[in-house]
Amino acid sequence: MHTQSDDPSGSLGSHGRRPAPDPWRDRYAARTSGMIASEVRALFAVAARPEVVSLAGGMPNVSALPLETVSAVMADLVLRQGAVALQYGSAQGVASLRESICDVMTLEGIAARPDDVVVTSGSQQALDLVARVFLDPGDTVVTEAPTYVTAINTFAAYQARVAHVPMDGDGVVPEALAAVFARLRAEGRTPKFFYTVPTFQNPAGVTLSAARRPHVLDVCRRAGVLVLEDNPYGLLRYDGEPVRALRADAARGHDVVYLGSFSKTFAAGLRVGWALAPAAVRDKLVLAAESAILSQSPFTQLAVDRYLRTQPWPQQLEAFREMYRERRDAMLYALTAYMPPGVTWTTPAGGFFVWATLPGGLDAKAMLPRALAARVAYVPGTGFFADGGGRSHMRLSFCYPPPERILEGVRRLGDVVAEETGLGDALGAAAGAGRSAGP
Ligand code: PMP
């Protein structure tokens, strides 16, 4: 089984001791060979050191939440509805929250019925349930390249194969998607679904343009391929015009399963997300959820619902947007100021991530130990491809460190890249002016 430990050298367990041989090694199910720790997780231990500026993790910044208010909402919940909140609930989720979720989805143009919503433990569980319901070993899933690392790992855990489709600055390329479907058809493979993060993509930070959205839906409809739209970042837009979710314009919604989450717009630790699915798929998801967890936590669902109904959530959302916008701006400023020539990057209008490309065949994975020595962490691009691609790329997150740390982190990274490209000395003299200024 291929696993990566928290120790970047890969030789020691997470407690610094060599792990004992595993007596059950030969007994595990074949699917465990696809269960690998994400590159992001492997980095956490190093990136968490206080001297390291971590541009690696994608953790939302909950410090912008009014904790007294959240605590009062929860205390009130236990006092008034404790008997329901602390009891088992249903596998589909609390009805009043499913109503609130439908209200939230109208913000992205979706008209849905609460009955078609399944509440999940974060959208990650929704992803797992969809995979469980659709994927047999050897099945094919089509995804953008690059794509969300834990989606790759989830599909691998169900022993599925991933076929990638390239993106450009406007998101996935519809003609390329059609070409991949045609190639798979010629090979006798019918993709089970097209997994896409169309808005403020993780990791690339790009958004599928409004003009392309109907084409993508059309290509999938013609090929008879279900769309799995994963949209945890859609409400975190920092500039530009809002786009409608793919699900909003799908014909009767029959060919899209939509995933949403409160992790980035409220609190990730509550683990509340959802799937909106066509009725037949919804029934399967509820059955799959029942066998996985019996019931979602009524406590966390009711806490989210009460918060949405009693607190000024739109203002909270705006506060999150302002905080992340400032961080995004700091990162884009710093990249312009500190990156040597030849490095390129995306300009996200929302979400958490910038995707940077190194020049001259530089390998971001090979460079990582030198970046860590320079006290800055990022995620090498290879983790976001199922086919070994992504060597010259890195994902830079701006969600967690404050703006001044982002500036410092990108400055350190710029120095590392400059040294790798042999530009270190030449740039040293020129960099002074840019370094003293700030956004
Ligand atoms: N999808 C994407 C694209 C993500 O970036 C994440 C979180 N990093 C998730 C799903 C899962 O989020 P959660 O389970 O917290 O809703």
From TrEMBL:
InterPro entries, per database record: Aminotransferase_I/II_large, Class-I_PLP-dep_aminotransf, PyrdxlP-dep_Trfase, PyrdxlP-dep_Trfase_major, PyrdxlP-dep_Trfase_small
GO MF entries: transaminase activity
Region (Disordered): 1-26
Taxonomic superkingdom: Bacteria
Claim: Zinc is one of the keywords in the record: no
Biased composition (Polar residues): 1-12
UniProtKB keywords: Aminotransferase, Pyridoxal phosphate, Transferase
Ranges of residues in domain Aminotransferase class I/classII large: 69-413
Cofactor: pyridoxal 5'-phosphate
Protein name: PLP-dependent aminotransferase family protein
Source species: Streptomyces roseoverticillatus
Highest classification ranks of the organism: Bacteria, Bacillati, Actinomycetota, Actinomycetes, Kitasatosporales
